[in-house]
Amino acid sequence: MDTLNQMLGQVLADPQLRQWVLIGVVGLSALTLFWGLTLVASGVASPYRRQLREIQREVDEDEESLEQRLVIAKEHGSGFNGHRVRTLLVHAGYQKGSAYRVFVGIRVMVILVSLLVTFVVLNMMTQLPLSGILLVLLGVGYVAYILPVFVLERLANKRMTRMKLAMPDALDLLVVCTEAGLGFKAALQRVAQEVSMSHEELAEELTLISAKLRAGFSMQQAFDEFILRTGLEDFKSLSVAINQSIQLGTSIAETLRIYADEYRIKRKQEAEEMAAKVGTKMIFPLVTMIWPSFFIVAIGPALIKVFRVFGNM
Predict the structure, then answer these.
(1) Sign of the torsion angle spanned by Cα atoms 61, 62, 66, 71
(2) pLDDT of 41-83, one tens digit each?
(3) Contact 140, 110 (CB under 8 A)
(4) Are 255 and 242 a contacting pair, CB within 8 Å?
(5) What separation in angstroms does the CA of 273 have from each of 262, 269, 276, 278, 307?
(6) Is residue 77 within 8 Å of residue 84, measured between CB atoms?
(7) Angle subtended by helix axes 99-125 and 130-179, to nearest 10
(8) Do 212 and 222 meet the contact criterion of CB atoms below 8 Å apart?
(9) Nearest to 10 by CA among 136, 124, 127
(10) Which DSSP letter does residue 44 get?
């Protein structure tokens, strides 16, 4: 507090004005911290209390469904706005209504903690002027603001990758179940149970598709919502093919087998592509770490002898 008061004294000569500015900064920081903690607490509060509060509000309009919110988010582009964050939260598996409030609370806390730690470190280890400190704090605040979005995007991409890699195996199980005589809805539920241990995310999505089909949703609508929730645009053709097979009465097992082979080939090609990139990715660590060590070991003894010879001369 004394350090902050001294910094304000370098800018503001009036002691009374400096005191009011200091009170305002402290109050604003406290309010921001309280707001962030409130958002986090409201997101993880008891679901029964949240339900009671929602009943007491007497909402006139129905809340938009998850899929409608995703469509709206998709239409608003891919910036750092709330729509983009909500889409990433759903793709990462955080599909509850309170997920966005929790994310905003975490983001506010990350910004405050980053600014506080940076301010303390700068005052203890450097002698920067006030303008320099403010510039550094501005940069740290911006990084702390966008960092949670990048972390969330990485989590969403990892979840989508796991589901994409698990889909060929799930389609093989669907082929086996349908050829054994199960209906498609029952086969989906059975496959969801079988893959729940190895591919938990895909099992949850298949269970949700099965539940929507039992609730009266059409096949096309259920799979379209699955694509919106997961962000896996590659499975649109699979959705269309399954819907056509059911409508035309053709063998759905054969359709599933074709797409299972196709996705398995894609998975193999992606693995080969990743293996082909290893050599290029190894160039930087080889040049910066291994090659200097090899150079020192190979040329070092000879250089030492040369220096000794010239030293004796």
Answers:
(1) negative
(2) 655 555 545 555 555 544 343 444 555 555 444 444 444 455 7
(3) no
(4) yes
(5) 16, 6, 5, 9, 49
(6) yes
(7) 150
(8) yes
(9) 127
(10) S
pLDDT tens digit string along 248-291?
A: 777 788 888 888 888 888 888 888 888 888 888 888 887 888 87
Query: Which two tokens mark 74?
Result: 């998709």
Q: Measured between alpha carbons, how far is 278 from 288 in angstroms, rounded to an integer?
A: 16
SS3 annotation, 208-245: HHHHHHHCCCCHHHHHHHHHHHHCCHHHHHHHHHHHHH
Retrieve residue 98's tokens: 């309170």
Is pTM beyond 0.85? Reply is no
Pick from 107, 108, 132: nearest CA to 118: 132
Q: State the DSSP code for 164.
A: H
Amino acid identity at 181: G
Nearby residues of 244 by Cβ (< 8 Å), 6 or more positions away:
250
- Contact between 70 and 90 under an 8 Å Cβ cutoff? The reply is yes
- Length of the chain in residues, anyone? 313
- Identify residue 14 by its one-letter amino acid code: D
Q: What are phi and psi of 13, to 5 degrees?
A: -85, -30
Tokens 């309009």 — which residue? Answer: 61
Rg (CA), the chain: 29
Displacement of CA 123 from its chain's centroid (Å)? 34
Task: State how far the Cα of 256 lies from the Cα of 62, in Å rounded to an integer.
Answer: 37
Report the distance separating Cα 68 and Cα 147, nearest Å: 27
C-beta neighbour count of 229 within 10 angstroms: 20
The DSSP line for 124-137 is: HH----HHHHHHHH
CB of 192 closer than 8 Å to CB of 207: yes
